[in-house]
Amino acid sequence: MLCLLLGACSAPCEKSADVLLTLSGDSALLSAATRLSLVLTVNGTPVAQQPAPINGPFAPGTTVLLVPSSAPAESAYTLGVSATLSRDLAIVASASTSFPAASHACNRGTITFSASAPADGSMLDFAQRVDDLAHHDLAKNEDLAHPDLACGASAFDEDGDTIPDSCDVCAANADNPPTDNDGDGVPNACDPAPANPVNQVVLFEPFNAPLSGWTGAMTESSGSLVVGSSGCTNYAQRTTGVGGQVQIQTYVTPTAFNLASAPDFSSVGLYALDNGNMSTGVACLLQIDSMGGTNLIVAQGAVLGDPNFGGGGTRTPQTLPSTDVAVGTTVRLRMTLRNSYFTCDVASATGQLVASKRVTAAMSYANLQPILGTCFAGATYSSLFAVSE
Fold first, then answer.
1. 20 to 30 A Cα–Cα from 354, which one of 2, 92, 109, 223?
2. Could you tell me if 174 and 161 are in contact, meaning their C-beta atoms sit under 8 angstroms apart?
3. CATH fold of the domain at 214-388
4. Of 252, 336, 235, 263, the residue nearest 286 (C-alpha)
5. Based on the number of CB atoms within 10 Å of its own CB, is 64 exposed (0-12), middle (13-18) or buried (19 or more)?
């Protein structure tokens, strides 16, 4: 969908596929923000073309006209809206809503922003936050070290850059201060196309709260997702997708490689299945084979198919240093998917690139569901982060 209008609309509603979205909530909160980012879903599936970020000013009653680039195939559907207000690459507030819509109707919805405590339970000083946003450049991290910081003094900080998650757009990659060359609201450190202003953060899961929206054999412990080490059916799968052209990353620490039990190899990795289809997907795997070789495995097709979990599909290996595929070593796995190719990158925990493998292939995915999985291995995953392409 494309955003074509920002203002205060009072015109009569005309039947079409367009959707008029009204912003509501605290006026101080809305006026403190300078940018609005939207992520839209139709019946739970992200739309192929997400709206570009919208610049303020904002106030209660501000409206945004969403015009589909092509009308949804369904005559009636549920439109989901996740919205983020930001200023100087710092998050001001987030909200979400959903409402019924149709391809030929008077489609209207409202999304409400309110001051609330961050998900990690830290208290947010709303008055102080609005003052900081109005008088400081949070992209330069002014005042964030003080006890009255706008985001809550005890807030989680997944990437350790001293900008708490509740204010950090690029919460899984350290960037203090953040920079945004293309002005799309996604800082360079987590922007898959830093010269092309088309990206949106669509998922950040720090695993520091009770799990919701996951299925499979896993547990949450001390800010990490723990996946077991026995057999080849260990996985944690998101029940909702992140779109088709997307960059997905996680930080993984192997806890065991059980080669004695494995027929050919032991692996930990990041997978993505199109609409949950076991025969259509991609994977980036850290693998130790039966001869002790350490590899980055790039797989596509039936990546979760027979003979073993992680053993199917078309697999392309690249040798990795043994120090980077080892128990206790944390690495960043990142997959980037586009229509004509996809890449798998391995980097150190501090972001230094170790290896990158690109596979050229015509592919078209509608809605990839991330999976964190192991085969005759155990691992902990410290976060999951996704940005639309």
1. 223
2. yes
3. Jelly Rolls (2.60.120)
4. 252
5. buried
